[in-house]
Design the sequence.
């Protein structure tokens, strides 16, 4: 089960790095932290899973989207 | 067989099917809806595992994930909505 989840995480990480659109990468990062929450949960570390759920799912996504709203891409178009 | 274990298997299978949409989804909106579906299914999965292991602290993880996941999804949805309005 843990090996399966780690393989899924590998696929999601490659997707997050190679995504063409910025928001798709942010969404892949959110899914990555979701899967790692489940991993910590299954490995009987619920306190680590709690922190990962709070920071990874909520705050990181919020900060990334906030940065995307306040920046422009290299070609000058508003994202 | 324990019905909770059967439910855990069903939720795992549907979560894997929903993750396919997040990975393959051609548009960003597809990925966004897929992430929302995966988040709610994983929430149910966390509660079911907590019931299966009979540990109450595991329920707190599900609670915190629900609150902060909602904030994250709200931020993404507002961003996409504002971008569509400006086009």
Sequence:
């Amino acid at each position: 089960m843990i090996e399966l989840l780690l393989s899924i995480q590998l696929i999601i990480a490659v997707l997050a790095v190679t995504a063409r659109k910025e928001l798709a990468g942010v969404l892949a990062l959110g899914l990555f932290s979701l899967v790692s929450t489940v991993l910590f949960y299954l490995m009987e570390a619920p306190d680590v899973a709690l922190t990962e759920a709070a920071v990874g799912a909520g705050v990181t996504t919020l900060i990334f989207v906030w940065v995307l709203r306040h920046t422009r891409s290299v070609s000058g178009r508003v994202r | 067989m324990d019905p909770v274990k059967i439910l855990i298997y069903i939720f795992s299978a549907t979560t894997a099917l929903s993750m396919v949409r997040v990975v393959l989804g051609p548009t960003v909106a597809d990925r966004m809806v897929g992430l929302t579906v995966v988040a709610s299914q994983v929430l149910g999965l966390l509660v079911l595992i907590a019931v299966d292991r009979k540990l109450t602290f595991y329920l707190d993880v599900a609670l915190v994930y629900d609150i902060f996941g909602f904030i994250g999804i709200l931020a993404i949805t507002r961003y996409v909505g504002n971008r569509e309005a400006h086009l």
Remarks:
- Chain A has a mean pLDDT of 85.
- The helical segments of chain A are 2-18, 22-42, 46-69.
- Chain A touches chain B through 34 residues (CB under 8 Å).
- The two ends of chain A are 39 Å apart (CA to CA).
